[in-house]
């Protein structure tokens, strides 16, 4: 199989059910989820510490789900096949957020991105995920989409925030609260 096809040389690309311009909102949306997946792969590749094994496993699951998001976003005609991203994936993310958040210390202010290398990359994932979500919102104003992809990305950015803090905590590196932030988070109920 050849990697190059030459079919995109005139500025169009194939999606599920047809062809669109390479700068189409649909391509921007699934392209940004692909970019997110690449940064996530980089973060996973640095998670050699066994303290992070469960995180690594969950993040690898998310990599597959990001491909599912991209596949649903690339679907030009929803009647061609069922969507892959479903509400149960969003529910599971919420369960994981609660689980990982329970092991981190309380915060009341925004945190500066940073700490360990893994945590820093997970914060990059969080911000790229927010951009992917914005691209999906733009696409949804133009055409029908799988609404669960938007919900999934919204919850996923919260997940990345939580696991970035978890990675720091497990390595004994404290989060640095943004000094000029008002109190924006409630303390966890114990």
UniProtKB/TrEMBL annotation:
GO BP: any one term: cobalamin biosynthetic process
GO MF assignments: ATP binding; corrinoid adenosyltransferase activity
Recorded metabolic or biological pathway in which this protein acts: Cofactor biosynthesis; adenosylcobalamin biosynthesis; adenosylcobalamin from cob(II)yrinate a,c-diamide: step 2/7
Coiled-coil ranges (or none): none
Catalytically driven reaction(s): 2 cob(II)yrinate a,c diamide + reduced [electron-transfer flavoprotein] + 2 ATP = 2 adenosylcob(III)yrinate a,c-diamide + 2 triphosphate + oxidized [electron-transfer flavoprotein] + 3 H(+); 2 cob(II)alamin + reduced [electron-transfer flavoprotein] + 2 ATP = 2 adenosylcob(III)alamin + 2 triphosphate + oxidized [electron-transfer flavoprotein] + 3 H(+)
Keyword Nucleotidyltransferase (UniProt): no
EC numbers on record: 2.5.1.17
InterPro entries: CblAdoTrfase-like, CblAdoTrfase-like_sf, PduO-typ
Any Pfam family matching the protein: Cob_adeno_trans
Record flagged with keyword Transferase: yes
Domain Cobalamin adenosyltransferase-like, chain residue ranges per copy: 3-167
Sorted UniProt keywords: ATP-binding, Cobalamin biosynthesis, Nucleotide-binding, Transferase
SUPFAM superfamilies in the record: Cobalamin adenosyltransferase-like
Enzyme class label: transferase
Family the UniProt entry places it in: Belongs to the Cob(I)alamin adenosyltransferase family.
PANTHER family: CORRINOID ADENOSYLTRANSFERASE, CORRINOID ADENOSYLTRANSFERASE MMAB
Assembly behavior: Homotrimer.
Protein name: Corrinoid adenosyltransferase
Annotated source species: Paenibacillus ginsengarvi
């Amino acid at each position: 199989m050849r990697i190059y096809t030459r079919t995109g040389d005139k500025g169009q690309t194939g999606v599920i059910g047809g062809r669109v311009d390479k700068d189409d909102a649909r391509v921007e949306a699934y392209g940004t989820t692909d970019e997110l997946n690449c940064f996530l792969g980089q973060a996973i590749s640095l998670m050699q510490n066994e303290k992070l094994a469960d995180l690594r496993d969950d993040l690898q699951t998310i990599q597959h789900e990001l491909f599912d998001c991209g596949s649903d976003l690339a679907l030009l005609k929803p009647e061609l096949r069922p969507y892959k991203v479903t509400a149960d994936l969003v529910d599971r993310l919420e369960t994981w957020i609660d689980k990982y958040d329970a092991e981190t210390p309380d915060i009341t202010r925004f945190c500066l991105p940073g700490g360990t290398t893994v945590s820093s990359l997970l914060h990059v994932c969080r911000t790229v995920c927010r951009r992917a979500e914005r691209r999906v919102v733009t696409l949804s104003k133009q055409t029908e989409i799988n609404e669960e992809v938007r919900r999934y990305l919204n919850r996923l950015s919260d997940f990345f925030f939580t696991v970035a803090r978890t990675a720091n905590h497990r390595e004994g590196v404290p989060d640095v609260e943004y000094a000029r932030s008002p109190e924006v988070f409630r303390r966890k109920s114990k």
